[in-house]
């Protein structure tokens, strides 16, 4: 089973962001994760394509961009141009999700679909054949540092079984409250990509120690 770490910079120290990203990369992070929030779809504001372009200059790792915004179609091209490699969008509040995923693919990027904790797995089945990965939120999106919701494990297991039954090449990503204790639980359920933010960037024992415990 794969165990890939996508480091969310939401909790990084932006006064020394490049050094933090470089430290994470050196410690074995696989992807860099960008949480894009607009203050509408989720109750917080983060950053936009300009920061994504800046991050692109700081690392050669794949950039994993999670659009928690009300109008993702208006920004897919901008984040693609900024250097995103993977772009995921929410199924919630998007009656044209098929078209949105087509938009990501048209821009030459890997497409992902995202499920909030209150959304059943079945909601994304109609577009499962179009995406490279499914991101299951294990917290309610909008803020870093939240606690893992254990009911997310059932959703991961259900989705994993669906993917295996249909023999699809689709990865399962999980985001929210991931640390050295919760990552093995999500991995056992079938997740392969783990978005980790505060556990890496605010770890009192440092980024290398955090990554060592996550990859153990």
From TrEMBL:
Binding site for substrate: 8, 66, 142-145, 175-177, 197-198
Reactions catalysed according to its record: D-ribulose 5-phosphate = D-xylulose 5-phosphate
Active site: 35, 175
Free-text function comment from the UniProt entry: Catalyzes the reversible epimerization of D-ribulose 5-phosphate to D-xylulose 5-phosphate.
Membership in a protein family: Belongs to the ribulose-phosphate 3-epimerase family.
HAMAP family attached to this UniProt entry: RPE
Protein name: Ribulose-phosphate 3-epimerase
Species whose genome carries this gene: Pelolinea submarina
Upper lineage: Bacteria, Bacillati, Chloroflexota, Anaerolineae, Anaerolineales
Record gene name: rpe
């Amino acid at each position: 089973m794969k165990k890939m770490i996508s480091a969310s910079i939401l909790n990084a120290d932006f006064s020394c962001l490049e050094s933090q990203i470089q430290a994470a990369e050196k410690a074995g992070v696989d992807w860099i994760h960008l949480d894009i929030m607009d203050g509408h779809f989720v109750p917080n504001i983060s950053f936009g394509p300009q920061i994504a372009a800046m991050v692109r200059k700081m690392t050669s790792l794949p950039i994993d961009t999670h659009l928690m915004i009300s109008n993702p179609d208006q920004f897919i091209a901008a984040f693609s141009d900024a250097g995103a490699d993977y772009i995921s969008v929410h199924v919630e509040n998007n009656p044209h999700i098929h078209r949105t995923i087509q938009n990501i693919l048209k821009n030459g990027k890997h497409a992902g679909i995202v499920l909030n904790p209150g959304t059943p797995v079945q909601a994304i089945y109609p577009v499962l054949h179009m995406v490279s990965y499914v991101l299951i939120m294990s917290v309610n999106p909008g803020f870093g540092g939240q606690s893992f919701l254990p009911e997310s494990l059932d959703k991961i297991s259900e989705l994993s079984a669906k993917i295996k039954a249909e023999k699809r090449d689709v990865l399962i990503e999980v985001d929210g409250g991931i640390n050295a204790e919760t990552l093995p639980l999500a991995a056992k359920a079938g997740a392969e990509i783990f978005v980790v933010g505060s556990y890496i960037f605010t770890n009192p024992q440092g980024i290398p120690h955090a990554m060592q415990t996550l990859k153990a």
